[in-house]
């Protein structure tokens, strides 16, 4: 199979990052690479699906390319399963180029051997080769869960945005500059992130009311967070963890959550440090028709931030979407991108 490699410059790049690890540290989304070849290996597990492709270049030179896709959960919601592609299939792929020039791409589009085009990223993307494919359909209409307020499953409508650039202390700048994503990113070792990054992701989450508290189930990393709906400070028997101690209250249609005691040293997936005294304030504001949650999270950290860090996004209720098991699994073979 003859390889076709096309480099395209994309003029607009949205300022997003991946919650489980910062893919922008490894792949350049301004450069799109297109390849075609034969599938020789499939890794169908979270946090990311991998395909290995044998590509024949001009002159008969054979190259082995690593194709990194989104999570199994996202792909299955798009109708793409472990049985959709097999070893020996001839496929075409397009995606972001490796920043170091390795034969690897972060896939946005796949063209399968049967002519079906798949959006293989956790982000939405336009179809590249066909007019019909598997984009996730946006659903806004209420279903039989209307009237339950926030207590249902929410999927992302928009990936989170940082409202303003981070303003770091000199010490925090030095720590961030020394961060090596290939060796220091806990997500590459299946270590779940702390707050607020635990919530800033493109996967479903659910609120459950239970005995004077709210359970927040977060699909990524199989997170279970407890939000105490009572006044008072940290309980004596509380042991700080990566999600921290959270106390919530309702003000009209807004759930306000204050979190402290986060036992995690990173604010985000890009190496920004976070201190043990950081304070996190969240607002989940329910729309009048109960189909959207307007989300805002503010982090104050005097050890590392000269100004509060503020992220925002929109969650949307999509009937039928469930919180699925994540079950992060390390791959035996490490992609050259992460070596």
Labels describing this entry:
OB fold (Dihydrolipoamide Acetyltransferase, E2P); mainly beta; 3 helices; five-stranded mixed barrel; disordered N terminus; 339 residues; Lipocalin; 16 strands
Overview of this protein structure:
It is a single chain. This protein is mainly β and 339 residues long. The chain folds into two domains: 8-136, OB fold (Dihydrolipoamide Acetyltransferase, E2P) (Beta Barrel), CATH 2.40.50.140; 153-316, Lipocalin, CATH 2.40.128. The relative contact order is 0.17. Helix content is 6%, strand content 35%. The two termini are 28 Å apart. The model is unreliable at 1-19 and 136-142 (pLDDT under 50). The strands form two sheets. A nine-stranded mixed β-barrel has the order 8-9-10-11-12-13-14-15-16. Strands 2-3-4-6-5 form a five-stranded mixed beta barrel.
User: Stretches where pLDDT falls below 50 for ≥5 residues?
Assistant: 1-19, 136-142
Overall geometric form:
globular
Encode the helix/strand succession as letters.
Answer: EEEEHEEEEHHEEEEEEEE
Give the biggest beta sheet.
Answer: 9 strands, mixed, barrel
Question: Beta fraction of the residues?
Answer: 35-45%
Separation, N- and C-terminal Cα atoms: 28 Å
**Main structural class:** mainly beta
The average pLDDT score comes to 88
Instruction: Tally the structural domains.
Output: 2
Number of strands: 16
The CATH class designation of the largest domain is: Mainly Beta
CATH topology of the largest domain: Lipocalin
**What percent of the residues sit in helical stretches (DSSP H or I)?**
under 10%
What is the architecture of the largest domain at the second tier of CATH?
Beta Barrel
Enumerate how many helices there are, as a single number. Answer: 3
Please give the radius of gyration in angstroms. Answer: 21 Å
Strand arrangement, major sheet? 8-9-10-11-12-13-14-15-16
């Amino acid at each position: 199979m003859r390889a076709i490699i096309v480099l395209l410059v994309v003029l607009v790049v949205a300022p997003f990052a991946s919650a489980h690890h910062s893919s922008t540290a490894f792949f350049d989304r301004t450069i799109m690479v297109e390849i075609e070849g034969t599938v020789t290996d499939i890794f169908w597990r979270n946090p990311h699906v991998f395909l290995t492709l044998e590509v024949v270049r001009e002159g008969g030179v054979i190259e082995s390319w690593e194709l990194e896709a989104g999570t199994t959960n996202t792909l299955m919601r798009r109708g793409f399963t472990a049985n959709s592609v097999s070893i020996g299939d001839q496929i075409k792929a397009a995606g972001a180029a490796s920043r170091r020039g390795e034969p690897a791409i972060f896939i946005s589009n796949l063209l399968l051997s049967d002519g079906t085009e798949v959006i293989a990223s956790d982000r939405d993307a336009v179809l590249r080769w066909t007019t019909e494919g598997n984009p996730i359909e946006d659903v806004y209409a209420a279903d039989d869960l209307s009237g339950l307020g926030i207590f249902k499953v929410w999927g992302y409508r928009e990936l989170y945005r940082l409202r303003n650039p981070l303003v770091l202390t000199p010490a925090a700048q030095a720590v961030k500059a020394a961060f090596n994503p290939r060796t220091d990113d806990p997500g590459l070792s299946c270590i779940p992130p702390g707050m607020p990054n635990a919530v800033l992701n493109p996967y479903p989450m659910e609120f459950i009311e239970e005995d004077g508290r709210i359970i927040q189930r977060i699909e990524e990393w199989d997170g279970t967070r407890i939000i105490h709906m009572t006044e008072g400070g940290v309980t004596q028997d509380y042991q700080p963890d990566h999600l921290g101690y959270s106390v919530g209250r309702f003000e009209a249609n807004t759930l306000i959550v204050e979190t402290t005691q986060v036992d995690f040293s990173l604010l985000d997936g890009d190496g920004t440090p976070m201190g043990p005294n950081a304070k996190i304030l969240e607002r989940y504001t329910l729309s009048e028709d109960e189909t959207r949650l307007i989300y805002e999270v503010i982090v104050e950290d005097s050890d590392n931030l000269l100004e509060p860090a503020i992220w925002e996004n929109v969650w949307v209720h999509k009937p039928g979407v469930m919180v699925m098991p994540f079950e992060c699994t390390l791959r035996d073979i490490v992609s050259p991108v992460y070596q």
